[in-house]
Amino acid sequence: IQVSAYVNGIWGAYGTVCTVTTPAGVLAKPNGSDSKDAELFSDFKLETYPNPNTGTFTISVSYEGKFNLVNELGQLIQTIEISKDNNFEAKIEGLTQGVYFVTGIVNDEVITKKVIVQ
User: Fold this and answer.
1) Is the pTM here over 0.70, yes or no?
2) Which residues, at least 6 apart from 26, have a Cβ–Cβ distance to it below 8 Å?
3) What pLDDT tens digit does each residue of the chain (118 aa) get?
4) What does the pLDDT read at residue 83?
5) Dist. CA 91–CA 56, nearest whole Å
6) Hey, what's the torsion of the CAs at 80, 22, 47, 100, to 10 degrees?
7) Residue 81's closest CA among 99, 102, 95?
8) CA-CA distance, 92 to 113, in Å (whole number)?
9) 101 in Cβ contact with 112 (< 8 Å)
10) How many angstroms separate the CA atoms of 28 and 20, rounded?
């Protein structure tokens, strides 16, 4: 991105180009693991069903963590915490028609699943 100030109706010069990474959520490592190996999350899954749906769907993951539900404009709709206490699943309800994305971070990489509400 590049940023420019807008002061008293005048745009200033653009700053230096930079890359910005915004975390969408943080996943916990499996219990008892302190490994940072890349294969740690090789069996990670993020599933949404049914997809497409009518405003109610389930998110199912293989590790506990925090996930964001955002709309197609990038606006945060809901933060979802999933753990073994809820069997690694969360039910989402009451969404209006549109395209949404469920995002989380696995091994420093953003994982995203598209969800369509008809």
Assistant:
1) no
2) 65, 66, 104, 105
3) 667 777 777 777 777 666 555 444 444 444 444 554 444 555 678 899 999 999 999 999 988 888 999 999 989 999 999 988 989 999 999 999 999 999 987 667 778 899 999 9
4) 87
5) 7
6) 80
7) 102
8) 14
9) yes
10) 23
d(CA 5, CA 102): 32
Place of tokens 């890359």: 19
Dist. CA 20–CA 115, nearest whole Å: 25
Structure tokens at 26: 């943080």
Peptide bond into 52 cis (omega under 30): yes
Q: What's the angle, vertex CA 66, arms to CA 60 and CA 67, rounded to 5?
A: 65
DSSP notation for 29-94 = PPTT-----GGGGTT--EEEESSSBSS-EEEEESS-EEEEEEETT--EEEEEEE-GGGTTEEEE--
